[in-house]
Design a protein that fits this description.
Order of helices and strands: HHHHH
Number of domains: 1
Shape: elongated
Structural class: mainly alpha
Length: 144
């Protein structure tokens, strides 16, 4: 058996080529605040529109209780998201600013829970005067 030799210089060794990772995603503070604000707007409009659909007259304490409850629940979800240590949030906004937003949001959520409790307590006696007599309907329909 004969081996064949290639004529010419030996091939130069080349290191393996690595792919360059894309830059990490960074969220801007204004965009995050806009998204939080739009979600809060949806939480305000939803119970209000639901109350307007009903045949019963609109009762302000009932609507306040529902809106405050929806905002408080949404606020808790936002607070968990702010402290979730998501890399795009921490890189784009910064852990210190997220902590300040979380602190301020916590105070707002506690206030909303108190407003919800107060408005629900004020609206509760009117539920006994409903034609159907169902207090469950008042809690779930927003119609009073």
């Amino acid at each position: 058996m004969t081996a064949t030799l290639k004529a010419g210089p030996p091939e130069a060794w080349q290191p393996p080529q690595h792919r360059v990772a894309p830059p990490p995603t960074r969220l801007r503070p204004d965009d995050v605040l806009l998204a939080i604000g739009l979600g809060a707007l949806a939480m305000v409009v939803w119970p209000y529109l639901n109350a307007l659909r009903g045949p019963a007259p609109l009762q302000l304490p009932v609507v306040i209780a529902h809106v405050a409850g929806m905002l408080a629940g949404y606020g808790v979800v936002v607070l968990v998201g702010l402290m979730s240590r998501t890399p795009s949030l921490e890189r784009g906004i910064g852990a210190d600013r997220l902590s300040r937003w979380h602190s301020q949001g916590g105070r707002i959520v506690v206030g909303l829970v108190l407003v919800h409790a107060w408005a629900a307590t004020v609206a509760w006696p009117t539920a006994g005067r409903r034609a159907s007599g169902s207090r469950y309907g008042m809690c779930c329909d927003c119609r009073g």
